[in-house]
């Protein structure tokens, strides 16, 4: 048996606010950041696990402190029992009643648990010699169901229903895995659409996105209606009448305001409206969905947990589910979210961008295609061309598609030199 001997956390921040990369109506000057975790073991194979929580600057130290609060659950523990039953490991971390009180199952504590779970999956995948998507896709339906905490979900999906979804997808797994390796997974890009960009930069980046093979772009909206009309006109003139353009309000609006604003922009032909109001307002999203139809509502990147996703689906409040690799309680909870979407027949188009989110969430979409939904129809992974150079295995996006990663692991490992170079004011904590 090997043991976990260190739980190293680092406050990493990139000064993206200087170029307004990531700017939108709610977040005008983000500094893309990561509360970063490295789980170190004494195993002879030398494999360690990497995970993080994505933030946008101030407060990243708070997220690091939440990670540090979990060290006692892992340091000194035997590693193999944790990896052998990741369902039990996930439930044990979430079940610490004193830490759970800080949520429950939401906020900085829940995201910290997600980073720990993801780092353990990173070790498990590296030890198996497989990328995470392939490791998950080759598990049996029973093994996958055992990963999921169905508490609070059984009025929407039961373990037996989840098992049936996975068994129905099982016969075509090998063919879909080969198809994925051959053709990749479709991507769309938000790179042209940051709110702080000039019209000239917007037009240039739209042209580049089309030339690069992307099948959709996304524009940030919500600060000023006349500005949004002007910017959408610029994008539509460059992209042509039929090219899909989504918009994203980043939670900016009241419910009635969202309906009015989206209907004013609808003549430009919208692929979807993303995060029109508070991510917690399930009934508000449902009202907006009715009020802006046939424009689709997309949301979920800030959904706190599987229960919010369950309610959004039950209320017909979204037509596109957007999971995030670092927002909920890690891989296990996102498997629950994918199963909920499959049961409801709703496509999943993950939130990415940020720092490392593209690298991480591609594994979940690829697993979904191979082993859960069995389709890429109407599904895309967001792509933003920022900060990939800092990762040991950066995303490989060519011709508007994600190439399936082949390197073992969960994809969240940042280069040691980048971690050192962008550590915030030397605030490193090691346990």
UniProtKB/TrEMBL annotation:
<dbReference type="Pfam" id="PF13378">
    <property type="entry name" value="MR_MLE_C"/>
</dbReference>
<dbReference type="InterPro" id="IPR036849">
    <property type="entry name" value="Enolase-like_C_sf"/>
</dbReference>
<dbReference type="Pfam" id="PF02746">
    <property type="entry name" value="MR_MLE_N"/>
</dbReference>
<dbReference type="InterPro" id="IPR018110">
    <property type="entry name" value="Mandel_Rmase/mucon_lact_enz_CS"/>
</dbReference>
<feature type="domain" description="Mandelate racemase/muconate lactonizing enzyme C-terminal">
    <location>
        <begin position="199"/>
        <end position="295"/>
    </location>
</feature>
<keyword id="KW-0460">Magnesium</keyword>
<dbReference type="InterPro" id="IPR034610">
    <property type="entry name" value="L-fuconate_dehydratase"/>
</dbReference>
<dbReference type="InterPro" id="IPR013342">
    <property type="entry name" value="Mandelate_racemase_C"/>
</dbReference>
<keyword id="KW-0479">Metal-binding</keyword>
<dbReference type="InterPro" id="IPR029017">
    <property type="entry name" value="Enolase-like_N"/>
</dbReference>
<dbReference type="InterPro" id="IPR013341">
    <property type="entry name" value="Mandelate_racemase_N_dom"/>
</dbReference>
<protein>
    <recommendedName>
        <fullName>L-fuconate dehydratase</fullName>
        <ecNumber>4.2.1.68</ecNumber>
    </recommendedName>
</protein>
<dbReference type="InterPro" id="IPR046945">
    <property type="entry name" value="RHMD-like"/>
</dbReference>
<keyword id="KW-0456">Lyase</keyword>
<dbReference type="InterPro" id="IPR029065">
    <property type="entry name" value="Enolase_C-like"/>
</dbReference>
